[in-house]
Amino acid sequence: MMVGIMKMKYLDHGFKIIIETFNMIAKSYIIGVVEDIDLHSITLKNKEGFLIKIEVTSENFVFSDYFIRPKKFSKLSVSKLDIIKIEKRGGVKILFKHGSNDNLLFVTDQCNSSCLMCSQPPKNVDDIEYFYKINNEILSLIPKDIEVIGISGGEPTLLGEKLNLILKRLKLEFPNTRVHILSNGRKFFDKNYVSRLSLDINKLATFGIPLYSDIATIHDYVVQAKNAFYQTAIGLHNAARFGLNIEIRIVITKLNYERLPKLAKYIFMNYPFVEHVAFMGVEYTGFAVVNSELIKVNPDVYMDQLKEAVLFLNSMKINTSIYNLPLCLVHRKLWPFSVKSISDWKQEYSNDCKLCEEVNICGGFFRTSRLKYNNINPILEKKYNE
Ligand code: SF4
Prior knowledge:
TIM Barrel; CATH 2.40.50; 9 helices; globular; binds iron/sulfur cluster; 7-stranded mixed β-sheet; alpha/beta; 7-stranded parallel β-sheet; 2 domains
């Protein structure tokens, strides 16, 4: 087995790190902004302002997102001003993609729900401190004028006080940045918690909270947690009471599609204060693959129910969108609600899409999905504005 060696030499204003093998074991990770990059070296500036040059001497190595799988993720390739993390085993992760609106602070793999279609199944690991440190480094390095940043996990409210600290930092240092936090909202059942959180929140922050049914037992089954519906339902009111902006997220599955129109009415009657409702297609990865028998339903099966739900909410002046569905699978009346929502690094089109007249406004589908649509149908006549 090759033994990894990491050598550090001082340059004029920083270090030089030479990685001599793929198996090199760094003492710890390094996070920095990419100042310069070529095939065999990269220069990072860390939060203290030191320049760190990393050279890889292996002949086989081509600098890419992952040392061990060069080229495979070429679409993701590192560019200048990205923030990256060089990990213990030599892996490289992009933590912040310069110029992208899909950047997020990943705060934990832990979750108190276990949704049947979760694309990133929760892990029972003690990782909050680890990610908290990393996210603070990211916040020290990213431009203060970024338009938007997400916070996601796992379940962010499991961070306790640390979520307040992150939000407070965003509020103070990034006053004009929109912050989008994905949470199951169950913790909002505790109004004292919401009251405290509201003090640390930027006015531009929004919580994206899932509600999968107007029937408690269906919602609880989907999220695999008893009383989750009750907690979230009360939580939504507590959130409104303390001035938090709320988006309701509905992932469409076999378990809930028939009641989408009823769910839309329930939302209008009970949560007219929400600023946005998003109906979402499934990303078939993680638990969604394991549970595909239970949850999988094709968009053509639920399109009537989706149309009724979206048009109803729209008629009630509730801002409504459809995420994660290819345009050719969406009813034409719903095209104005369809959003290119899939992160650029996960987005994919098929060969057929080359023929499609609406490729520019279609968000495609998930490259990461293990179950693909088999009825992608290029739009041959531009119809969007008709
Ligand atoms: S054919 Fe491709 S680009 Fe066109 S709408 Fe369908 S998925 Fe989108």
